[in-house]
Amino acid sequence: MTARTLILSALLLAPSSFAAAQSKPVNQMTTLTHTGTSDRVKSTQALQATLTELQALSLQTKQAHWNVSGALYYPLHELLQEHYDGMAKYADDVAERMLAVGSSSDGRAPVIVGSSNLPEIPGGFIDDARVLNFFTQQYATVAQRVFKRIKDVEDADPTTSNLLQEVEAALEKYQWQMRAHLQPTNTDANSGASLNGGAPVLNGGK
Predict the structure, then answer these.
(1) 3-state SS, residue 48
(2) 119 Cβ neighbours under 8 A, 6+ residues apart
(3) Does the pTM exceed 0.70?
(4) Are strands 68-69 and 126-127 parallel, antiparallel or unpaired?
(5) Dihedral sign, CA of 36, 108, 99, 44?
(6) Under 8 Å CB-to-CB from 156, ≥6 apart: which residues?
(7) Is the dihedral of CA 147, 152, 154, 159 positive or negative?
(8) Quick one: pLDDT at residue 174?
(9) What CATH homologous superfamily does 39-109+126-181 map to?
(10) Which residues contact 201 (CB under 8 A, 6 or more apart)?
């Protein structure tokens, strides 16, 4: 009896089990036993919220990359491109993790606009001081949100928690890179006034 005949015979002897195994794709989580648990739902919610925010920040960094003006035009133009590339990479990682836990990801424009819950960047040319202030605040806001999600999922889904930690670390780095332009030192108050028509650049201000 050939190997092919043996395989066919085995399938004929157990048709019901073979059919059950092939009836739908199996997409089991790596850290949770069942894909229908509340823990999976919590992981999905944390990942989707982070994905939406990363996509919103990506769009905003690209808008600022194109339109930043002022004395810091070139360094900010380059830095914003780096941030855009980094967030696009993490957005992809987050979306793929959602697939790994058994959920689809939603990157549609209405979802980004409707659920990211972030202030929109101004249109038109945007002053370098305003870019620094805007992204210092945006990155801090999203990093704080992601930090809370890390705590929410770390016990049940450490793989997702680890990924969110990477995202938070990147956002903290990006926030520091913006903040450093305006950070006071022992020899320079560095309020950003030289970039802002003689007025200090204040959190939440222009």
Answers:
(1) helix
(2) 134, 137, 138
(3) yes
(4) parallel
(5) negative
(6) 31, 32, 39, 42, 43
(7) negative
(8) 98
(9) Ferritin, core subunit, four-helix bundle (1.20.1260.10)
(10) 129, 130, 132, 133, 182, 191, 192, 193, 195
Q: What percent of the chain has pLDDT over 70?
A: 80
**Which H or E element spans position 67?**
helix 38-67
User: Could you state, in order of their start, the residue ranges of all structural domains in the chain?
Assistant: 39-109+126-181
Pair of tokens at residue 6: 């043996």
Strand partners, 69: 127
- What is the predicted pLDDT for the residue at 30? 56
Residues with pLDDT less than 50, the chain: 6-8, 10-26, 34-35, 204-206
**Contact yes or no for 68/14 (Cβ under 8 A):** no
Please answer whether residues 143 and 135 qualify as being in contact, where contact means their C-beta atoms are separated by less than 8 angstroms: no
> Per residue in 118-164, pLDDT tens?
999 999 999 999 999 999 999 999 999 999 999 999 998 999 999 99
Exposure b/e, 60-95, CB count within 10 A at least 16 = b = bbbbbbebbebebeeebbebbeebbebbbebbeebb
β-bridge partners, 68: 126
Q: How far apart are CA 18 and CA 26, in angstroms?
A: 14
